[in-house]
Write a structure and sequence with these properties.
- With 140 residues, this protein is an alpha+beta fold.
- It has a single domain, classed as 2-Layer Sandwich (Alpha-Beta Plaits), CATH 3.30.70.141.
- Helices cover 39% and strands 17% of the residues.
- The protein has seven helices and four strands.
- The protein has helices at residues 12-16, 20-29, 44-50, 60-67, 82-90, 103-107, 122-132; strands at residues 5-10, 33-40, 72-78, 116-118.
- A four-stranded antiparallel beta sheet has the order 2-3-1-4.
- The radius of gyration is 14 Å and the shape is globular.
- The structure holds adenosine-3',5'-cyclic-monophosphate (CMP).
- Adenosine-3',5'-cyclic-monophosphate binds next to helix 4.
- Adenosine-3',5'-cyclic-monophosphate is lined by residues 54, 59, 62-63, 93, 111-112, 114, 117.
Length: 140
C-alpha cells in the first residue's frame, strides 16, 4: 500500500550551485506539500549512517565525503503516492539517464553529485524521515 510521505535532501552540490529556490519551487509546483524542512549539515558519521545500506558499495566513501562536504536541505514531502511520484520528478540517479525536465536532468552534475535524494520505498521514507526530524518538527 502506498503511503503519502517521502524524504528528500537537496544535496551539497545543488546548494553550492544556488539551486535551493528553484528545486523547492519545482517540488511545490508538482503538488508536494512540505511538512518538515531544515537547513543543516551532516557530519561524516551521520552521512555514513544515513547511507549505511550502501556501505559495501565501491562509491560509499566518496558518497559519505560528498554528503558531508557542505550544507543540505532536508525535507519531508507529502502527496498521494509520494515515493514513486517524487522519484519520477527527480529522474534517474545518473543525470545522463534522467528524463528532460526532471530535477536531476536540470541540476545534477554527475551520478555522485546528483542534486537531490528521494526515498526509494515507503519503509525507507519513514526511516529517513525519523533520521532527520523529531515528531515535533513535522507539521502535517
Ligand atoms: P541517492 O538517491 O541519494 O542514493 C544513493 C546515492 O549513491 C545516489 O543518490 C548517488 O548519489 C550515489 N551513487 C549511486 N551510484 C553511484 C556511483 N556509481 N558512483 C558514485 N555515487 C553513486
Amino acid at each position: 500500500m502506498a503511503t503519502n510521505r517521502t524524504l528528500t535532501m537537496i544535496k551539497p552540490d545543488a546548494v553550492r550551485n544556488g539551486h535551493i529556490g528553484a528545486i523547492l519551487e519545482q517540488i511545490n509546483a508538482a503538488g508536494f506539500k512540505i511538512v518538515a524542512m531544515k537547513y543543516t549539515k551532516l557530519s561524516t558519521e551521520k552521512a555514513g549512517e544515513f547511507y549505511a545500506v550502501h556501505r559495501e558499495r565501491p562509491f560509499y566513501g566518496e558518497l559519505v565525503e560528498f554528503m558531508s562536504s557542505g550544507p543540505i536541505v532536508a525535507a519531508i514531502l507529502e502527496k498521494d503516492n509520494a515515493v514513486e511520484d517524487f522519484r519520477t520528478l527527480i529522474g534517474a540517479t545518473n543525470p545522463a539517464d534522467a528524463a528532460p525536465g526532471t530535477i536531476r536532468a536540470k541540476y545534477a552534475t554527475s551520478i555522485g553529485e546528483n542534486a537531490v535524494h528521494g526515498s526509494d520505498s515507503d519503509e525507507n521514507a519513514a526511516i529517513e524521515g525519523s533520521f532527520h526530524f523529531a515528531g515535533t518538527e513535522v507539521f502535517a
